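Chapter review: from sequence to fold.
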Amino acid sequence: MTMRGMDQMTFGLNPLPKKIRKEVFLDEMNQGRALGCAGRVDQPHARGAHQALGGRPPFPIETMLRIHCLQLWWNLSDPAMEEELHERPLYRRFVGLDGAARMPDETTILRFRHLLEKQELAPQVLATINAGLAQHGLMRKTDTVVDATIIAAPRSTKNTQGERDPEMHQTRKGKQWHFGMKAHFGVDAESGLAHTVIGTAANVDDVTQAGALLHGQEPAAFGDAGYRGVDKRPRPRAPPGS
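The token string follows.
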């Protein structure tokens, strides 16, 4: 047998498993260090907010909160989050849906996010997460990368008054039109984790939110062509307590 043939043989042994950085990070978060807001979500309202059609039972509050955290950490829109849950066993394990017969769809994820916004918990969730990350050295106030993503919604989306949600608008990206909202992210350049998130209508220009996405202590900030001209805008003030 040639050495080349021996190199290709495994002798029935699998390589030792190695945890990727994302898995190590989620293991850290899985210890509950940054997920202390779950009990503060009002259970009756939460049940109604993401109750699936056809009388199917709602997903647990902690599961939905963990999904929300995944969206914040990796800048995922609602449709992208739905796809990631189907494609990534790592994410399913983290949110407690490993082996589940069904996954939350993008509408369920959207409704839960609106629930957090209604109860004014979304900023508190992010602040709690960031405090835990900073405490354990997983996020530092260094350079910031600013970015935005469109959160598409069906044009038939209506609010509780049966009217089209006034926070949603249409916008053009390239040659394609989109309807919905836009999430603007300020991301820690070193860890890749979001430290600031702002929601607007989809037609709001990225550059208008750039200043508010900075924590105020970064030596440098980075963004794509959507932020051209930001240097001509007033410099944002550092957040209180920074």
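Two observations follow directly from the output. Residues 74 and 192 are 8 Å apart (CA to CA). Residues 141-232 form one domain.
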